[in-house]
Structures are given as C-alpha cells and as structure tokens.
Specification:
328 residues; mainly alpha; disordered N terminus
Length: 328
C-alpha cells in the first residue's frame, strides 16, 4: 500500500497540485509532444467542458422561450428512459446493475423519446385542461419521474442508484465517456447553428415564423430532443439535479451584459466552459490542500451561482454610478 501511494505522484501529474499549479501542469500537458495518457482531471475537464458548451448554447434558447422548467423536467424524466432501455436490453432481475456506466445507443434513444413524450404530454394536458404550462409540466414531470423510480425499484432490488445518480460522479468518468459527449455536443451545436435563424424568429414571434416558412412546433420539439440528448450524454458527470444549473445560469449571466442573440450565445458558452475549468482546478486544490473530496459538478454549480451574484452586483453598481454622473 505504501509503495502504491508513493507511485501516485509519478502516475498522475495533477496529484497534490494547488490551484495555480493545476493550470501550470495543464498548460505543460497541452503543449507537450509526448503525451501518452489522459488523466482523471483531464477527462473531467473534457467531458464537463463539452457538456457545458452545448448546455449553455441550448440554455440561451430555453431562457428566451421561457422553457427552463421543461429542461428541469427532461433532466429528471431521463431516469425513465434509462430504466426502459435497460428493461428492453438487459435481463437484470435480481442482479446488481451499475447505472453510472457510459450510456449506450439504446439508453440515448430511449431518453430522447421520453424527453419528446414529456413535452408532448405537457402540451396536450395544457390544451385539454386549459391549465398553465408550468402546472402541466409539474404534473407530467412528477408522474414520469415517479414511474421511473417505481420501475427501477420493482425490476431490480439490487440496482446501484444512489446519490451519484442525482449528483453525478465525475471521478468515475472514463475515456469512453469522451466520444459520447463529443458527438452529442457536435450534433447539438451543428443543429443549433443550422436552425438558428428559425429558432430566433420562433422565439420572438411565432406568427411571423409561420408566415416566413418556419415550423414553430417542429423547432420546439427539436429543441427538446437536443436538451434530452445533451442531458443524457453527461448525466454521469453532473447527474439529474445539477443539469439545470448549466442550462440556466450561464445564459442569465450573459443576459446581464448583452441582449443580442449571437453575442449572448458566445458569452453564455464562455461562462459555462470557464466555470468548468475553475471547478476542476478548485476541486483538485481542495483535495490536495484540505483533503476535501468535493463533487466537481456541484462545485461548478456553486461557482455559477457566485458568478451570477457577482455579475448582478457589478451591474447594479455600474447603473448607480451612471445615475450619479448624469444627475443634475
């Protein structure tokens, strides 16, 4: 055991790194020509960075369309999609199942379909019962999430579905997670850029979008499918609970500084990715200096909240300063 501990610094260059030392090591690793292995901190950075990139992009559209609670619903009803996929592809009655494995194609497709079902049921319930969409969203979200928990508890008593399923477990990330998140982010950004004009028109004026040849209903469900795909691709890293922070807070921070759509998208993505970098570095520092194993996803969400509060304070101070200068 002592020999193993003594070998750790040689194996992982980030072992026992401080906050600023982590950035120095990362820079040297990026510009090194002899990199033969990728380490845990780098896997976290890549996976969570790609997720933050696509989530921050979609988050701008969600905030502008006032669909943030729908994103929260989709991030939770993913559980039903995961359970349904496992029920159809794996016979695990009475067996121990590890849910925090990289999602396969069946899980991804099932989760996207459940996401579309969530949006469809919410719309139909609001239309039939003439209720507000947020109330219908709460009912559908609660019912589908509860159904997923029920099926999970009935189908496999030994399923490993602890707190990691809700908050993620970045330490369990593997190199196999990188292609899934990478292709998901590329697909999300490609579709978003391709339909950006349609999204921008449909967000602000549905009638004009229809007259211009766009189909708001199609764009709405396409957005929901992208949210579900992005959520399921990185649920191992951030879980169900922390997903909403990456969809909502970066766009809210960006809206404090700009109102135009394209600068809003760029600023939101920069905030999301930058926060992930800070979270990974700070998480390593807390572990090295204080022996505090903090969840990187939760730490990133906390940092996003602090950044939003700081940006809000700076904006208010600037507003008061301008009011003082222009006062007679």
């Amino acid at each position: 055991m002592l020999q193993l501990l003594n070998d750790i610094p040689a194996m992982d260059p980030y072992f026992d790194a401080t906050f600023f030392g982590w950035f120095s090591i990362l820079a040297s690793r990026i510009f090194s020509l002899h990199r033969t292995e990728i380490f845990a901190d780098e896997i976290q950075l890549i996976v969570m960075g790609l997720f933050a990139l696509s989530a921050s992009f979609l988050g701008v559209l969600l905030v502008l369309k006032r669909l943030t609670m729908m994103a929260n619903a989709l991030s939770h009803t993913m559980l039903l999609g995961i359970v349904v996929a496992l029920m159809m592809t794996v016979s695990f009655q009475g067996q121990a199942i590890e849910f925090l494995t990289p999602p396969n194609l069946a899980i991804i497709v099932s989760s996207v379909l459940i996401g579309l079902l969530t949006g469809f049921l919410t719309e139909q319930l609001a239309r039939v019962r003439t209720l507000k969409e947020d109330a219908c969203n709460g009912m559908v979200f609660s019912a589908l999430f509860a159904l997923g928990v029920t099926l999970l508890s009935v189908w496999s008593r030994n399923a490993h579905a602890g707190v990691e399923l809700l908050m993620g477990d970045p330490d369990a990330l593997q190199t196999g997670d990188i292609p899934i998140v990478f292709y998901g982010a590329c697909l999300t950004l490609a579709i978003g850029c391709l339909f950006l004009r349609g999204f921008s028109v449909a967000i602000f004026d549905t009638s004009f979008a229809q007259m211009s040849g766009f189909r708001p209903s199609f764009l709405h469900h396409l957005l929901l499918a992208q949210v579900a795909l992005t959520s399921i691709s990185a649920f191992r890293a951030v879980g169900f609970v922390m997903t909403l922070a990456f969809f909502v807070i970066p766009p809210l921070i960006a809206r404090l500084w700009t109102k135009s759509l394209r600068p809003l998208l760029v600023t939101s993505m920069a905030v999301g990715v930058g926060t992930v970098v800070l979270a990974v570095a700070l998480g390593r520092h807390l572990l090295s200096a204080y022996y505090l194993p903090v969840s990187t996803g939760a730490l990133a969400a906390v940092l996003l909240g602090i950044l939003y509060a700081g940006a809000l304070c700076i904006r208010e101070l600037r507003r008061r300063a301008r009011a003082t200068l222009t006062a007679p």
